[in-house]
Design a protein that fits this description.
There is one protein chain. The chain is mainly β. The protein contains 12 helices and 58 strands. The strands form 13 sheets. The chain has a 22-stranded antiparallel barrel. It has a 5-stranded mixed β-sheet with strand order 10-15-16-13-14. Strands 3-2-5-6 form a 4-stranded antiparallel β-sheet, with no helix packed on it. The two termini are 33 Å apart. Belongs to the TonB-dependent receptor family. It is a multi-pass membrane protein. Residues 119-238 form the TonB-dependent receptor plug domain.
Amino acid sequence: MNISACIIVFLFSLGFMQNCVLHAQGLQVTGTITDAVTGTAIPGASVLIKGSSSGTISDVDGKYTISAAQSSTLTFSFIGYVKQEVSVNGQSVIDVKLKEDAGQLNEVVVTALGVSKEKRQLGYTVTDIAGTKLATTNEVSPISALQGRIPGVQIDQGAGGLTGNTKILIRGNSTLGVNNQPIFVVDGVILDNDLYDGSGRDFGNNIKNLNMEDFESVSVLKGSAAAALYGTRAINGVILVTTKKGHQRKGIGVNVTQTFTAAQPYRGPDFQNEYGGGTVGAFFTDTRDPNYKPDESWTTKVFPVNSQGQPYIDRQIGRELENWGPKFAGQQVLDYDGTMTTYQAYPNNYLDAFQTGKGSLTNVAIDGGTAESTFRLSYNRNQSKGINLRNELSKNAFNLRVTHKLNKFLSVDVTGDYTATKGSNPPSLSLNRYIWVFGRNYDTKKWMQRQNYIGYNGGIPQANDVNEPNKVPEPNIWFNIFENNYTQKEQMVRGRIALTGTVTDWMKVQVEGNLNNVYTENETKELGQGTNFTGGKYVLGHSTKETRFLKWMAIFNKQITPDLDFSGYLGGESQRMNLSYNLSETDGGLSYPGNYFLANSVNAVKSTGGFKNRRSYNSLYASADFGYKDQLFLQTTWRGDWASALTYKNGTGNNFYNYPSASLSWVFSQTFNNSLPGWITYGKLRGNLAALGGDIDPFTLNSGFAFRDPTDAGGNGVQSTSTFNSNSTLQPNIKPLRKIAKEIGLEMKFFKNRLGFDVSLYRDNTRNQPITISAPVESGVSSILINAGNIQNTGIEIALDATPLQIGAFKWNTMVSFSHNRNKIIDLYGDREYYPLENEGNGGNDLIPYAKVGGAYGVIRTKIAAKRYNMEGSPNNGKQILSWRSDARAAFPARSNEWKDVGDINAKFRSGWDNTFTYKRLSVNVLFDAKIGGDMILTSLRYGTHTGIFPSSLEGRDAEHGGITWTSKYDNKTYDDGIIPDGVFDAGQTITQANGTSVNVGGMSYQEAYDKGFVEPTHLPQFMYRYGSSSTAVGDYWIVKNSWISLRQFSVSYQVPQVFVDKIKLNTLSISFVGRDLFYLYNTLPNHFNPASNVSNSTAVQKEVGFIPPMTRNLGVTLRAGF
């Protein structure tokens, strides 16, 4: 969108708003909705114009404003209260007092395609949350704001920093892909919840560009029956967002919100602070220092000395931050840079690498209108700094929504959004030795200073430069943080125009067009680390994602008989998506260091990535809903999609798929109103059956097609953007995938709505999934695309709500959610038992998630599991086998070199507990969130133990910590760091003793061999160093249960009394304090690792790879004022 166009649209909008104000002719319907008994405000109450889908909800103070014709009737409702209808009849102020409902639930929610329905009518589960409740969280991502509030919805924060993605999963993983996340639909515009794979820096996806201050409500459509009308892209669920509209009023209303936030890192992992730097002996020698004494290489108790007799911290090349050195006692030693320093621990050196994050969020919204026209214009600015050094976010967002009645038959609703976001320097989440760099004697505040990480002649300190200190530990970490820049700029343009025509009193026709365009620019600026800053790199990437929709829909509402009503719609849509991406970078370094542009490349510029593709859908859909005596409701839907990705080059293919759904709800408390016990207030049974379909990636059907680097001429000397991939093929007649979902549910209310529950049972099966498998050698290709697989998810969701206490103006509302999902792979293809969800590369040393037949999506497997002793009848049968290393005089767990199951990422259950306490104008909210079960891969724990920084490296390190004391027969020296490894020697294992004789210890446990004098204790540092490295079997501590209970939110809000507000010429004024992620009440990760450390929002991944963010509490103060 060019600047001129933006100016024209803005000026037109101003003119339109002025027209709305100057020509206000209609009524402004405003008022306050309160409890008839307590007089307290009811936030989130629905206000609906009868006979239409137009409406609004009350704000946190119970206030509402709506545009309605003088002859219209307003319907007021809220869960647990009697629905009330009031005729406008020229009234501009309508205050409503709702009475508690003795037997009805008439809450209105927004469902598929933005249609509002009474919740009692629905045969499927929809959870509706007021936008004001989410906005108060002060989160960057709307996904994080939902955490802990909705049963069946799994939300996990990652380690990506300020802009990082948050994983969301509804009712389990349903496909063999790694992105099983729901889509977002904002006022009918679909936004993909894209994936971050954890390979570099997480800038987040465009969900972070949404402004929660614009949210009127958020509806979570969990079941397939609820989401079926959104088609293929809704196979994993829908988060449906309805934004705010303007209201008829006198003049212009202004609402200003200002929030200040602080993110406080309050706890890092637990470290041991007793021992400092030093390298495990016997494995290495210091070739740079001739006075390094080999006879001391078995002990970690003494410092090596240099030629001047000065003790120094053992600094083996590349291992200067290992922690197998002497115990801290305040000794004076030479530091890594050759200066004398006190040998001491720095307990907070990891937290010293972070900062207190700060943020300022400003939102200004103006609205107004007449009975015929309304507008709302908002501006949002977010300027924030994260806890990671130099990690920043800047966001400016504009939203305009205009409604206008062209005549009594035709109205228009126009929405436009523009968001510009810049993210800078999120942390690198790839394997970068980040946490284990912080040796216990590492002074972070010292080594992060520029004079220490910049070399004498520029770049990082070079070991072969005579002017440099002997060794500076890991200078590239601080060099990367402070000297390099990684930025992503995004522009998101979202627009929608909908024309609605009234044909009869029971039929309307709507035509809509919308677009969502995202333009992204990524820049990498890396200063050279060589002498005089030679080297360096500049990378520039651009991506474009343009989505356009054209829709039409006929909407029907008809009272067929006094007992039977009908509603429904018939519609169609056409979607077009275009994606492009290109990436160019310098090669061979920068000619002029510190100058970042492509022409500054030493060699010719490289085009290292790029693609361009498109896809389209054409669809028809319909629904028919029937209601009988306001107690029995039947809803049916059907949708058919024609997908371009399933169309062959010649126009053939299984490119059409359709999916029907049917749901039934019975409000039996209405049917048996006079015969139920008085303590039963409300009861409803519901059930549904639905089907969904899905396609594949664009161009996949065109066998052999592949994208080419446009600068690569290939073997024929012709440059092109595509080529022929001879390594892949596909089975004939690829079909769309198919998901069949079933659900039943029961809702009950008791004691005049003081207690209630909602239970759902579901089963989903997804078949015919397009997956790529290895092809037979004789086929001539390496891979083939086929239809295969059947993934099943079964589960239960429970929501329990209650009002345990209500005394006068005081009220306590509580809601407990519980969900359990069991994922099972029914079959894959042929006799195949496993399907990898990540690359199986890296020499088989990886811990990889798989889909397992008979098991689940997310079974963790490895080829480096411990080998087990197999000898029936032996007391050592089943124990891990130990491998003897004579150079270390130690034994270590041996690898099996066979694939083994070692974990499962799936949680046993999720739960949340949401409490709201209100007293007059004061409101307190306390939210707990819990996850029980599910394994997590901890790379930091693995290598941190290897380097000796964690408390687990202390047990056995000396006699004080349980180490065995003995005098070695090999060197006649006494040690106190001995341990007896748990395990058994394999058959045929021989050991050469100190006197040179060999003894066969096969079949013996280490304890048995020790008792017989065949082996000495293993040095603890030797054992831990090897057990945590890449040369032995998977340690028990590499994979751990990730269960936790968190105090997710504590907030206090106060609405300033109106008598004071009037004196300062305001309409409303409130202040609130919010604390998020305050602390964990329970955490099974060792060493107080942060559970929010996941490297990716891939639904297949539950691991961290070297970066453990500290536990961080987020605090915010918000002031809201209305003029």
